[in-house]
């Protein structure tokens, strides 16, 4: 399936980035049985820039990853480095949020409904989040090096606006599809385009419980 996306720059002296992604297959796992599986997986692709100038550094952003109905909500966050994430517990049971990821490892201990814990993510990278008490709970925090990042929409569209002219690496990441990079050049007042092929084949039984950061070659 082929999808097209177009971005519009908000400032005449800056360019934008648009992308075209081919999708192959539909994973067996999705959180909402009423949602189109392909729409769900599209919305779980993250695109960001590497090599952006220091002026692209975003101000730290406070966000939440809630624990509700024995799941993380949202199950995917995209934040710039230096941001903090709060993990409030809305369930009438204990949770113990933790991560063993290299960019940020932590263990928040057991805490009950109405309580929260906060973690600051200083370094860019992919952080897999789990609960010690409920193995089914999984979440991901994508910590980006700058403000030029976006989650792809359910229709397969995204835009990165106000990107200064220059050469960059565009990164497309998906939890099971993998990480893809492409070099682009942005010129003043024009959109640049990046094309990716993201395979979304069904998960094998051996991969179903393994976060991609723990797989060889990812």
Concise overview:
With 218 residues, the chain is mainly beta. The protein has one helix and 18 strands.
Describe it for me?
- With 218 residues, this protein is mainly β.
- It folds into two domains: 1-56 and 148-218, Carboxypeptidase-like, regulatory domain (Immunoglobulin-like, Sandwich); 58-145, Cupredoxins -  blue copper proteins (Immunoglobulin-like, Sandwich).
- The chain is built from one helix and 18 strands.
- The protein has one helix at residues 37-42; strands spanning 2-4, 15-24, 45-50, 63-64, 66-68, 71-73, 76-80, 83-86, 97-100, 105-107, 118-121, 125-131, 138-144, 149-151, 160-163, 166-174, 178-186, 191-199.
- The strands form five sheets. A five-stranded mixed sheet has the order 7-13-12-9-10, with no helix packed on it.
- The chain is globular.
- The model is unreliable at 1-15, 20-30 and 201-218 (pLDDT under 50).
Output the structural class. Answer: mainly beta
**Number of continuous helical runs:** 1
Instruction: Look up the CATH topology of the largest domain.
Output: Immunoglobulin-like
The CATH class of the largest domain is identified as Mainly Beta
Q: Determine the oligomeric state from the structure.
A: single chain
List the helices and strands and how they pair.
Elements: E1 2-4, E2 15-24, H1 37-42, E3 45-50, E4 63-64, E5 66-68, E6 71-73, E7 76-80, E8 83-86, E9 97-100, E10 105-107, E11 118-121, E12 125-131, E13 138-144, E14 149-151, E15 160-163, E16 166-174, E17 178-186, E18 191-199
Parallel strand pairs: 2-18, 4-8, 7-13
Antiparallel strand pairs: 1-2, 2-15, 3-14, 3-16, 5-6, 8-11, 9-10, 9-12, 12-13, 16-17
């Amino acid at each position: 399936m082929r999808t097209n996306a177009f971005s519009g720059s908000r400032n005449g002296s800056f360019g934008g980035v648009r992308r075209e992604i081919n999708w192959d297959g539909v994973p067996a796992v999705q959180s909402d049985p009423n949602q189109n599986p392909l729409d769900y997986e599209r919305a779980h692709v993250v695109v960001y820039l590497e090599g952006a100038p220091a002026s692209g550094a975003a101000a730290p952003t406070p966000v939440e990853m809630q624990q509700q109905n024995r799941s993380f909500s949202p199950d995917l966050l995209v934040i710039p480095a230096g941001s903090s994430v709060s993990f409030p517990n809305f369930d009438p049971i204990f949770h113990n949020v933790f991560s063993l990821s290299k960019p940020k490892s932590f263990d928040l201990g057991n805490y009950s409904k109405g309580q929260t814990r906060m973690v600051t993510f200083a370094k860019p990278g992919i952080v897999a989040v789990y609960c010690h008490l409920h193995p089914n709970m999984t979440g991901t925090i994508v910590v980006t090096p700058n403000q030029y990042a976006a989650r792809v929409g359910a229709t397969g569209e995204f835009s990165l606006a106000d990107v200064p002219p220059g050469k960059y690496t565009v990164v497309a990441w998906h939890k099971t599809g993998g990480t893809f990079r492409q070099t682009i050049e942005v010129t003043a007042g024009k959109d640049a385009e990046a094309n990716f092929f993201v395979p979304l084949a069904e998960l094998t039984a051996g991969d179903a419980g393994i976060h991609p950061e723990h797989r060889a070659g990812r």
